[in-house]
Amino acid sequence: MLHVLVVLLLMSLSIGMVHFLLRPNWIRRIRLALTLFGLPYTVCTYGVSTIRPITSSCYNLYMTSAWTMPSSAAPHVKSRCPQYPGSNIKRFPVPDDKVDWSQNWPQYKPVSYTDPSVAKKPAWADPDIGSFSPHFNTVDGAVDRTGFEGSYKVEEGKPLNPHGRTGLNGRGLLGRWGPNHAADPIVTRWKVDAKGVKIQHLVTKRPILQFVSIKRKDCGEWAIPGGMVDPGEQVSLTLQREFSEEALNSLSLSPSEKAKIHERITKLFKSPGLQVYKGYVDDPRNTDNAWMETVAVNFHDDSGDSVSELPLQAGDDAGQVQWVDVDSSFTLYASHSRFLELVAKERKAHW
What we know:
The chain has six helices and 17 strands. By secondary structure, the chain is of the alpha/beta class.
């Protein structure tokens, strides 16, 4: 039966390269079938990770094939939350089949909203379209307006969310028109007992990871500490800065305390980091014209003698901060649960 299906599939293709998305346990059979027909092939398996280094002038980052999320993924959900966060603004309801911009929808009439904090024109925000002419899909002066997932459309001078309609025009709480780039440092350690032995989960029998989690002040949800990449700033520096400010409250420390923490933090962030994701974030702050994109990098304190011993103290945008067990049942802000799932799989830990 399998060979019949392969024959039918090959007959329907006019290209020389056959690209399959298959479960790993089918690969050997399909390779054999294709070899019998004398055709070249590639086989992609999601969930089988290949780590390869990427260059960084400051830190050694490694990324895994698991981090990529194709633009054809399921429609964003949190980006269509009924009420825009921090306001009384209601989004125009967008059903799943009308999310994609290619779907003709004359009845779509979303309200335009830009939060007052953004409208006051702080240094981190763009002016309104019309009062300046940004160059989208490129590095515009010090501001990187490129999209992590490729070029996005610009219509009537405004960029369009690459993942489709959100039910709201304008920028909302976001400062930049188009992509707003962030960095999310996922700092982990092993959960150990009093003797320093790794604790395994009773069901999965895999060691349990813990990560530094903050409780956001704006929405009360738990999240990975992170923040926006400043214009011209290297992502590697953003990762370290945001973790220090949000999880360790470095802004309120004395010079001597800052020096001690800086030494340990620098040691951890100079270790090989695992980049688990780079792309669009399904964030409740997203609009039709402004959206979040991030780079999520895991820094793991394997020996437990680095940040594991530092006293966590909430600062900046964090209300609370603590070490939390990595587990699928723990609800997190935006797409952060997905990032932790990728970390757990790469570290062969419980999820």
